[in-house]
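An instance noted here:
***
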Amino acid sequence: MSKDKVILGIHDGHNASVCVLVGGKVAYLVQEERVRYEKNYWGFPTEAVKHALKSLGLSATDIDRTAFSTISGVPRRRDLKATLYAFERLLKPSGLARMALIRLIGKLPYARLKNNMLMRRALLAECGISGGEVKAYGHHACHAAAAYYAMRTDAESEHLVLTLDGAGEHHCATVSVASKGTLRRIAATTIPHSLGTIYAFVTYLMGFIPYDHEYKLMGMAPYYDARRAEEAARIFHRYVGLRPDGLGFAKKTLLPMHMQGPSLLRAMRLQRFDAICAGLQKFTEDLMAQWARNCVMHTGLGKVVCGGGVFMNVKANKRLMELPEVSHLGVLPSCGDESLSYGAAALAHAELADAAELEPWGPIYFGPDVDESTARKLLEEKRCTFSRPEDIELEIARLVHAGHPVARCRGRMEFGARALGNRSILADPSKVDSVRVINQMVKKRDFWMPFAPILLRERSDEYIRNPKAMPSPHMMLTFDSRETFPEFLAAVHHADLTARAQLLEERHNPDLHRCLKHFERLSGRGVMLNTSFNLHGYPICAGPREALHVFENSGLEHLALGPYLVRKENA
């Protein structure tokens, strides 16, 4: 019997990440930002590669193939300053001309020759991986593969696979049909027609960070009068729509979308900030919903899976979920570029072994566990006050019920942008003041941004409307709340009373489920407030060292670190 194939997947661009598949199953999937403790790291994930090999006890000879998630890109280090400068440059005529020249040069043969594997092999050698089979896959092929293999309902059924982002090599959107482990692309949209680029540019023009703060515009949108949002949406409908076949996007302007900064700035002048957010969000939802409906009608497939950064827009996902033609909607957890390492690894595994071994994702706690000895050593070095309760989940529930937010760093770290309980701050969602307290303590979030609830799935119908009984273990969908919303008001969007809910199943996280059951017995409510465990401007903490950094530099008073309960002196 042959050994399980070991595949190393690498995304070496924006939000770099590393994935290791063993026998088609995810053994490790972590973003470089967590290992370096540097948010949105952009470049080669050197430290995550080393950490993966060490954590899994692998050597270079164990790896059957190293798979990269882009073909043409050369990995380069890029920080926040460089990102903002790129957008600023595009607001100037000289910058537009320069960008056009760069894109023209990029199409020339010698530029393609430069964009090869030499640099990647050199960086792999720094990580202890010399030689071996290396292959690169297309950006949107990886988005599609990640969405299909992770979110399909079964291996036999046909699924419609949609990808949508700002830009990835040559494309910004694709449509594929997948079944029995293979994908067949039927439509694609090139970068000049990018819907995602418009959202990113408006994010920049509103004073936020593109490729990061788009969710803040989505959060502000419901505060504007929904009836008047259509007026603001007309601004953006002048730029891009759907092409005649309905399966892709088409610009309505002479210049491509990445050169529309000056025009957008003029169009937005004297518009209210909340009107801009509402108009942009409505435009995005309407266009995405019509595109998805066209693709479903064209293929006759109601099982839809999605990948690419634009699908991080949970309000747009809600619109897709509610389409009558859609029977199943699977949105890849943290479907931005950080998921591309899994897509590349999945494509490699499908080529080298059996695609049926690539099981759909359930729980996505793919990162490192909290090492008890490391945690205790750090606590003793820092002279923290801590104990080792017999049932720490019960102690967490008691503290939350008493009105105290508790940071929880237990078990394996969840993958991606959503904290799913193991690297979370938990609080009582019935206390509206929880939002203010957590923001003052640690989060420093914008005042209009909602927190999210974690619900016992068996009781979720009491709190949210989910007529298609869609699973939502990864916080990628938004739901309308029911009349019981006062019971979890602090975790509901105050303007439209929607909730980006995590529906918790015991099989996904038994310890966290037990904690929530304890809270249910104490409060009568099967719901908690859940927000990510991090300081503003930092990534979600990875382990004991980062958890204690947040604890020491915030107003948090209680921390569950592995089996230990840590309290501040004045708690």
Summary: Residues 372-567 form a domain with the DHBP synthase fold (CATH 3.90.870.20). Residues 104-114 have pLDDT under 50 and may be disordered.
